[in-house]
Amino acid sequence: MSTEASRTAPAPGALLLCRAEPESVGPAAQLLHERMLLTPAGAEWSVLVPEGTPWLRGGEPVERVVSGWATALAVGAPWPVLAVWWDADRSGFTLASGFRRPVGYDWLSKGMPAGEDEAMRTFAARLGLDPVLDMQALDALTKPDSAADARARVRGLLAVLTRAGVALPDGIAPGEPADRLSEAARAHPQARIVEWPGGREAVRAAASTALDRGPLGPWLPWSGGPRARTLALAQVAVGLPLTVWGARRRSGGWVVAGALLVAHGAFGLTYEIVRPRD
């Protein structure tokens, strides 16, 4: 890459869009052990802006790191998580929802599509997007376009999601430097910092949130009921091999996802022991 291109190429970065209110996202995001800024991002959407850049510290691609985060968040919550990422060579997204296999798509730096059309259709179906109007707009993102670079492609994706309620705060957009994203997030009047508060406090926060979610509460690891224990066992059964697989591939993002699955399951299985007593 030329010197001029290096100056104009965006530094690696990412955003996590969650289809839930900040009050639900905050307790789950604490378990990522990563300091982030959380703000509303439209009707029933929230955005997490990482304050750090772990993909630069560990040498792991930003795509793997944030895909692991999205998977870890989604398996412990009843809402989907969309990770949007970019670096000097590519940009793309990963959508995680429950225990289903994550789906993603990416573009090369000059906007050339590098994903599979079926992935875009699966993406639209899982988010309940319009199969005609929205799919036409998404389909256009899978076609060559000499006037659109990788960053423009991701912004085009987010433009489609505005019809699903997404409205990112001013200044928060793919391709912006991490410090500028953090500054824009802090400027939002409802922004708050999300970070790991310690085991006991995290259990209390997650349990309180889960029990307030109505019919979904009994299925979550923190409720202590029979359905929660079934889900907790499944989380441990999936999390252990995922952690081993991530370690073998030296993928910190997937190791985090597997470890958090095991942690969610373990909390669910031992809830009566660790539950804070009022």
Summarize the entry for a quick read:
Helices cover about 45% and strands about 15% of the residues. It is α+β, with helices and mostly antiparallel strands and about 280 residues long.
Write the layout of secondary structure elements.
Layout: H1 3-8, E1 13-18, H2 22-30, E2 36-40, E3 46-50, H3 54-57, H4 62-75, E4 81-86, E5 90-96, E6 103-108, H5 117-126, H6 133-140, H7 150-161, H8 178-186, E7 192-194, H9 199-211, H10 226-248, H11 252-269, H12 271-274
Antiparallel strand pairs: 1-3, 1-4, 2-3, 2-7, 4-5, 5-6
Helix pairs in contact: 2-9, 4-11, 5-6, 10-11
3D structure, described in words:
The protein contains 12 helices and 7 strands. Helix 4 packs parallel to helix 11 and helix 10 runs antiparallel to helix 11. The chain folds into 2 domains: 190 residues, no CATH class; 78 residues. It has 278 residues and is α+β, with helices and mostly antiparallel strands. A 7-stranded antiparallel sheet has the order 6-5-4-1-3-2-7, with helices on both faces. A hairpin with a 3-residue loop joins strand 4 and strand 5. It is globular, with a radius of gyration of 19 Å. Helices cover 47% and strands 14% of the residues. The chain starts with a helix and ends with a helix.
